[in-house]
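Before a colleague's protein record goes any further, I have to sign it off. Would you go through it and say whether the fold makes sense for this chain? Take the sequence as given and treat only the tokens as open to question. The record follows directly below this note.
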Amino acid sequence: MSVWKLRKNITVSGELEKRAGKEHEPMQDYNYVRLLEQVGKEDLAWAGGKGANLGEMTRAGLPVPGGFVLLAGAYREFVETSGLEPEIYRLFTGAELEYDNPDTLKDNTAYIQKLFESGEIPADIKQEIDQIYEYLESPRVAVRSSATAEDLPGASFAGQYSTFLNIEGKEDLYQAIKKCWASLWNERAVSYRARQNIDEVNLAHGVVVQRLIDSEKSGLLFTANPVNGRRDQVSLSSSWGLGEAIVSGEVEPDQWVISKKTGEVFSEYRATKIFKTVRKQGGAETVPVETVKQQEITLNREEKKELMELALKVEQYYQFPQDIEWAFTGGRFYLVQTRPITNLYPMPRPVDSGEELRMYMNFMLYRNALSAPLTPAGVDFWMHGLKYFLNRNKRQKPVRWLKSSGGRIFVDVTEALRFKWIRKLMKSRRIPPMLDSETMTLRSLAHVAEKENVELEQNRKSLPALIWSFITHVNWVIVLLRMTGRPQMLYAKLFPRKAAPKVAGDAYRRLAAFKERRNNLQTLDQKLDFVEHEPFGLLLLLTLAPFLRMFHVLGSLNKAEDILRKYTDDTSELVKVNRAVPNCITTEMGMEMLEIAKKLDRSGETPSHDHPEIEKFLEKYGHRSSEEVDVGTPSWRENPGYVVNTIQSYIEHKTYREAIPKFYRDQEVAEQAVENITAQLREKGAWWNARKVKKLLREHREFFGLREMPKFVLVQALAEMREVLREIGETLAAEGRLDHSDDVFFVSLQDMRANEKLQEKVRQNREEYRRELQRTSVPRVITSTGETVIAVNEGDADNACTGIPASAGVYEGVVKILKRPNEGSKLKQGEILVTMSTDPSWTPLFLKIGGLIMDAGSTMSHGAVVAREYGVPAVVGVGNATSILKDGQKVRINGESGAIEFCSN
């Protein structure tokens, strides 16, 4: 027996020995086939996704056409006896196949298809197929692929594999089965698995053989709206004939969007149904629809109601939104397939009870410009840190204002959106600096709130009641008193140059106290308590406190501009004041990397993680990383590849030759700009205002560079917190609850406290994290109905997209799209960097770019500020630049108007 036959023989149960009123032959043992009634979700590895789902539906009493599953063991036996395994391994798991080379992929898949079709199904497998096919009375059947990797969470293989209709007779059935097996290695499937990072090793294919429903009409039924994500809506489509043409997009169906709760039809589209798919000998064909039926609606009211009821039963059974294929014949509906809708963004948790509409803002994208997901440990840190602000004296209880979803933190902002004036403010292009973190988020909130304004305003509290709610439920008073430090704020206002280092010194003293508390931890319980209760202190004392103590100078540049505009319309010199500001830790970090590159290049040395210069750099900056606000993310010290590669890139492109002198030139330009502005006011006779503006601009330069310092210190504390978590992981691994200490970053604090094995949770959480890393777009807003808003399209030209002007200048160049800073080696000197958002770990790349375009961000976000400091034209808050633009495309960006124009190459 083949080594692949790991499963025990399968026995057809006695209760299935009767079918259609006829006694079945004496009970037999089967190795390779099973009736649909005999498989379920536990058989995914053997029956494949489609077979397991159809079996589950049959068990649930849903109207599924009868049939059987040819198990994956048959595929493996065929591959082994036909000698195909070495060829599959050579073509699809070796280094010879280049997934990005369509010609190679096409040739390899065509070759393997021929090998499958020419192979001979082993006699023992044929015998079982014959027996179960005869048991079903040898009907016309649909033969469908059912891969063991199919319909996994986060991966939908809809349309990837083959289906063959109207198959009749054993020989045609054998051939259809072999073609289904071969479709595991077709172009679409191989490419899709490569994009999804699904391992090619040990893949197998089941095959579903079902009685063919000769459909009068058929269609698709989504139990959540796949367009906007709403879980309270059903999307239904229907057309004449078989359903394969709808799935493949060959025909245009009638379409409805229907309320689950009331059955109300939100939208209806009646298509002109010119073609339909019908069965023919050995398959199916597309034929014209009779003229009289082309405009006829395919489903009446009662039929839609019956389909809705079936949809809700399916969703209730699976406890997850489903993509269902249905067919209708002889006055009866049949369900021929269901699979999870894998592209929906997960619902925020904890789920709100009740039916009142709630709206949640992506906090990580809005405040931190972080599009990547957090690890479970990172989610825990932010949830525990933030909930103290929002839940006075109830730190142990869940907070209704805080949600987590897809590794992101969301904040419930429903109550604020009930006020029309707040919605209007969010849509304004002159948003107050305190709110101007990620402008596209605010506009997206305003967009969805305006759409639902009737329901929102019906439940609106009065403004005094809302304020009182904040006072009684939110710790703002305590927080502000602890953070502000009035004497320090006054000192900073009077003596800005002396106060700047004091602000930093105070933060470092607090960091030292935090490290001392961390070093005193001994027991597991002490460490768990530390991880739970310290996040609030870190966010409060290391980040917000220094920020508020220098808050009064953050508007200095705007104040200076307001004064200057009273005397002149020419404010162009103000842009130069932002160049090369002092006290900026990220700029200093970039300059140190340039100096290392210069030194190593001149000495002919190659950068490496153990080079003394790089070791010295990592001693100071090694706590930083990509997505560095996530305590579960490895630091540069742990993984110095990004630092080494960036320095190597500086050497290869000789970046230091221009960037180092440019920094010192920019310092001189900025200082001269201050003098020019002052002189300009004096010439207008505004001596007092000239003195005032000069003071404001000096304050701005002294303090603005400090904006990165709180986060720099916070990330050092996070590195310490990460070490505490790793120690917890070592203890749990020693107890056998984890396999590796680093697995601790993929379980929650609650999991750590539970006295149970955590290996399966780690596996599930790692898989979910991997899927979220691959998500190309993240919602800025999500509602309690599941509706998601990625961005509000504000483009106003056919050949351009538009964003927020963030750094003045016009630049024409080639686009390079990057997801993460560790891809920076792909970036060439002078290219336009296009990305979702940036944080300080991206700063070294700004020394190479000619321009910047970001999906997220505002005029005060990290990318915009650094672009201005480096004199790089930038447009931010575009919303969808990473999907509209392509690598190598030539564009012209205007950092003053926010326009991005497509240029001919």
